[in-house]
Amino acid sequence: MAHDVDALSTALGIDVGGSGIKGAIVDLNLGELHTDRIRIQTPQPSTPDAVASTIAEVAAQTGWTGPTLGCALPAVVKDGIVRTAANIDADWIDFDAQSLIASAVGAPVTVLNDADAAGMAEMRYGAGRGEKGVVLLLTFGTGIGSAVFSGGVLVPNTELGHLEVDGVDAEMRASARVQEEEGLDYPEWTIRVNRYLNAVEAILWPDLIVIGGGISKQHAEFLHLLETRARIVPAALRNHAGIIGAALACKEAT
Ligand code: BGC
Description:
Blueprint: E1 10-16, E2 20-27, E3 32-33, E4 38-41, H1 48-62, E5 69-73, E6 77-78, E7 81-82, H2 97-105, E8 109-113, H3 114-125, E9 134-140, E10 144-150, E11 153-155, E12 164-165, E13 168-169, H4 171-174, H5 176-181, H6 186-203, E14 208-212, H7 219-222, E15 231-234, H8 241-253
Parallel strand pairs: 1-5, 5-8, 9-14, 14-15
Antiparallel strand pairs: 1-2, 2-3, 2-4, 6-7, 9-10, 10-11, 12-13
Helix pairs in contact: 1-2, 3-8
The structure holds beta-D-glucopyranose (BGC).
The site of beta-D-glucopyranose (BGC) has 16 residues, from helix 3.
């Protein structure tokens, strides 16, 4: 690395997804990964104990030695407690994720929703930087995650991926997982995404929509097919936003 990074400007970020658990030490001055990204497959079933041990394994493999970490989970998280479980094992519901992960890793942890983490990172370092209006970040992956900001302030746990569109939970028709499973090409998939974006824009009037999640790497193939009232841009931090946002959340909590 060409620059010096002191301990105060780094933190460990972990992003738990439906298919992989990813982590890296993050340089919070630059908003970039400071170490290589470690990825281990999400255990199946993704029970709290199995996921917590994998988180500890990812943390160890990054070379991290403390003192704190942030962990993004694909669920509603309030005061350290998980409240929903659309794409992880149902045993997570009402589970004290903060205590479990802290004892598995041996350090205090800040837990938050994965899309909220990605949104925080994009607002600080990426596509939402300097945006004062209403910003909506949507992550397209195993599910659809959402993060909403107004004046740079997050409204946590918005869960707009579960909006009902044409009688169906939106993420069951328009997530990146569904695109892959049903073999939809971009024109086919974006018809569904446009139905979804239209429904979202009927209830929320964002000034800017940021498209994130794994699929945002391929934005050149589909972004021009999306029709929105708001400006729409790809996530600048791509699939690293969750890791960077988790690290940022832990730094902000201390
Ligand atoms: C969950 C959200 C999560 C999103 C992306 C949804 O199924 O309900 O909490 O942010 O998936 O992982």
